[in-house]
Design a protein that fits this description.
With about 375 residues, the chain is α/β, with parallel strands linked by helices. Helix content is about 45%, strand content about 10%.
Length: about 375
């Protein structure tokens, strides 16, 4: 089953020309169960690959993200090496806030760090909207990548408004995001305006990738696991809906993923809609929740993505193989399944293991009827 892309996409877009519309990934995201399970890995482009480390020598992370030739090459590396069914655009969730003028850098060993946190109404008022012209390096990188990928789809991605706001308010990484959650309750008006701004920046970043050629879009909520269901529904979900709404008219499949999201997985699927209408094409599930339980929570009207435990990548092959087979078996209860990790590839992962996982997944057909036994 494939669905024609709407006219809002450029005529040269891979979904319009048909290059990627029949790919296993796009078919699965749209609710079909292709003959071969699609598989890709979050953070497949990056630190686990020696060719990536060699290319990045002497180049800061955000500089690499904004170098179209380098970002494209890094995106393509795991597709060539592993034979995965999609490329995931190499970038970072803070790239669009940097392009909007926020002083942010990625500090090795720590993560994104802001020059000054955003904690008052005046701070929020000082934030500038994202100028579409600033996204030119992103557009060029995506176009370069899509030209090389052929019929393999590219996934565009962006950070969800809550995760971006958490970095902005905390000023950097945090274990509990207490300052962000405090603002949510102590100054809800400023909080709402901050998330409106973040949704616009994130949505614009996503749209630039899709119009340049990405065949799917993923919204990534790294810190959603710190929220209660009530807080998510009232203070976060509407803004995530706004971010994803920036690509709604383009008709590309949309994936919503969060870490530690088990308690809000249903709400991430409906984006808080009180009528419980499914609002995305696929929901990513982290390693904590078995996929069959995830399907029970979200229903059969959405594709599931995941959820191999990244820790298993360093286990003996017999253990990893049994785990992958179990993930696929449980994913067989969904309308369709995109095999992935429950989070990102750890930097110390042996690339050969990822290639072997891809080969195993591709050997399992459409994923239905797969047992727990290992062939090791």
């Amino acid at each position: 089953m494939t669905t024609a892309a709407p006219a809002a996409l450029p005529d040269s877009h891979p979904l319009v020309t048909g290059r990627t519309s029949g790919s296993p990934l796009v078919r699965a995201l749209r609710g079909d169960r292709p003959e071969t399970l699609p598989v890709w890995f979050m953070r497949q482009a990056g630190r686990s690959l020696p060719e990536y480390r060699e290319l990045r020598v002497g180049t800061a992370m955000l500089d690499a993200c904004l170098d179209p030739a380098m970002a494209s090459e890094i995106t393509l590396q795991p597709v060539r090496r592993h034979g995965v069914d999609a490329g995931i655009f190499f970038s970072d969730i803070v790239v669009p806030i940097k392009l909007a003028g926020v002083d942010v850098e990625i500090v090795p060993g720590r993560g994104p760090v802001l020059g000054a946190p955003i904690r008052t109404a005046a701070d929020v008022d000082a934030l500038a909207p994202l100028d579409p012209d600033a996204l030119a390096p992103i557009t060029e990188a995506v176009q370069r990548t899509v030209a090389e990928l052929g019929d393999t789809p590219l996934i565009g991605f962006a950070g969800a408004p809550f995760t971006l706001a958490a970095y902005l308010v905390e000023g950097g990484p945090s274990k509990d995001h207490i300052r962000a959650r405090t603002m949510m309750h102590s100054d809800p008006e400023t909080w709402a305006r901050l998330l409106d701004w973040a949704a616009g920046v994130s949505g614009g970043f996503l749209r630039a990738q899709v119009t340049a050629g990405a065949s799917a879009a993923q919204l990534f909520d790294s810190w959603v696991g710190s929220l209660s269901r009530a807080d998510y529904v009232s203070s976060v979900a509407p803004h995530s809906a706004t971010a994803l709404g920036h690509v709604a008219d383009l008709g590309v499949p949309r994936i919503h993923f969060g870490v530690g999201s088990g308690e809000v997985l249903h709400e991430m699927t409906t984006l808080g809609d009180p009528a419980d209408t499914v609002a995305v094409d696929a929901v990513g599930v982290d390693w904590r929740l078995p996929l069959d339980e995830a399907v029970r929570r979200v229903g059969t009207g959405v594709t599931v993505q995941g959820n191999i435990d990244p820790a298993m990548l360093a286990a003996p092959w017999s253990v990893l193989e049994a785990h992958v087979r179990d993930v696929v078996r449980r994913g067989g209860t969904a309308r369709a399944h995109v095999v992935n990790l429950g989070h990102g590839v750890p930097p110390e992962t042996d690339p050969a293991v990822l290639t072997r996982v891809v080969e195993l997944v591709h050997s399992l057909g459409d994923g239905t009827g797969v047992g727990e036994e290992s062939a090791a």
